[in-house]
Amino acid sequence: MAHRIGFPRCLYYYTYFPFWKGFFETIGVEVVTSPPTSKEILDRGVKEAISDICMPIKLAFGHLLALPPDLDYIFLPRYVNVSKEDHVTFCPKFLALPDLVRATLSDLPPLLTPRIAFREGRRATLRTLREIASTFGVTSFWTVYRAYRRALNLQRRYDQLLQQGYLPDEAMAVLAGRKVDITRPEGDLTIAVVGFPYDLYDRFISLDLIKKLRSYGVRVVTPEMIPPQVLKKQLARLPKNLFWEFSNRVIRAALHYLHEEKVDGIIHVIAFACGPGTFVDKMLELETKEHGQVPFLSLTLDEHTGQAGFLTRLEAFVDMMRLRRMVS
Ligand code: SF4
Q1: What are phi and psi of 65, to 5 degrees?
Q2: Tens place of pLDDT per residue across the chain (328 aa)
Q3: With the CA atoms of 196, 201, 205 and 209 taken in that order, what torsion angle do they form, in degrees rounded to the nearest 10?
Q4: Residue 264's domain is classified under what CATH number?
Q5: H helix intervals, the chain
């Protein structure tokens, strides 16, 4: 029987899943994901995780517990770095996640927790991939190399689809061979919705923010729609680089939309108790005030976020931008 590995649908799922799915399937391992986030998954995570940690990590606990109990392994890599930029790493809670889970949850299938540091180059990456493959009895260098190439190709294709405007679920459907129509109404306003991918694209956690904005006739743009080389140009506007991978992407995307594309407004989505997000939020607030007075809305998500208050703020923000356009 084929080996089966579990992949929780949270955190890096929205960014790197195509790579790992391509890799595991090529070495003959079936990938099983947890279901899309639901109230039950979130409640379970909140109950099991330590109380003062950020909501996305609590949610990760819920997703781990939602995976089938008879898997060979759960894949829970320790993401250390991916970009070539010095000193840029992942948030400490990402780094500590395998330890947090081991210390808290005892009834899970075994965890596979390789250290992922793509900045160390292709040779080191292949060494890590060979170690992962050997866990499943795959020792041929060429099989691992083939899996690596396929994983890279899928990831590149996925990133391109996101840049073309597909949302992660839509892009994954396209990779799986399904047809997805992303024709959207033009929209009289353009709003940049920025935030960490696991907050923006989890439809339950984000209260389907992107879809709601579109239903108000708004064209929505997000950080994943900007190619990395374009994002990098915004580095010149910052006094220094930030330490965290996702924070850099968010702030650069917001600056790009603020200065290059001149959007009508910016919404920053941030999870409650997120240190890096709070830091970015303040920087964006100051930047939007200083340059051009672009309306800026900060939306904090937590496990208690209610639809009613959230929608009221969103609708008021959109109405205010339409009013602003009428009087200008
Ligand atoms: S970046 Fe923020 S939301 Fe993400 S894991 Fe770290 S503290 Fe949590």
Answers
A1: -75, -15
A2: 589 999 999 999 999 999 999 999 999 999 999 999 999 999 999 999 888 899 999 999 999 999 999 999 999 999 998 888 878 888 888 899 999 999 999 889 999 999 999 988 999 999 999 999 999 999 999 999 999 999 999 999 999 999 999 999 999 999 999 999 888 777 789 999 999 999 999 999 999 999 999 999 999 999 999 999 999 888 888 777 778 888 889 999 999 999 888 899 999 999 988 988 998 999 888 888 887 678 999 998 887 666 778 888 899 999 998 888 887 7
A3: 100
A4: 3.40.50.11900
A5: 13-26, 39-48, 55-66, 92-104, 122-135, 141-163, 168-175, 197-200, 209-215, 228-232, 245-259, 275-290, 307-327
CB 294 within 8 A of CB 266: yes
Question: 34: which DSSP letter?
Answer: P
Between the CA atoms of 118, 122, 127 and 128, what dihedral angle is there, to the nearest 10 degrees?
20
Same domain? 171 vs 208: no
Tell me whether residue 183 is in a domain: no
Q: Cβ–Cβ contacts within 10 Å for residue 324, how many?
A: 14
> Cα–Cα distances in Å, from 16 out to 37, 82, 151, 227, 265?
18, 11, 10, 16, 29
* Ligand 1 centroid distance, CA of 180 (Å): 31
Ligand 1, atom 3, residue with closest C-alpha: 274
**Residue 122 Cα, ligand 1 centroid: separation in angstroms?**
28
Pocket test of ligand 1: the residue of 78, 249, 274, 302 to mutate, having most ligand atoms within 8 Å of its CB, is 274
In angstroms, what is the span from residue 54 Cα to ligand 1's centroid?
A: 6
Task: Say how many Å lie between the CA of residue 79 and the centre of ligand 1.
Answer: 13
CA of 136 from ligand 1 middle (Å) equals 31
**Residue range(s) defining the domain that contains residue 52:** 3-175
Choose which residue among 55, 63, 78, 91 to substitute to test ligand 1 binding: the one with the highest number of ligand atoms within 8 A of its C-beta: 91
Domain end point (choices 175, 206, 241): 175
Of the residues 116, 142, 175, which one is the last residue of a structural domain?
A: 175
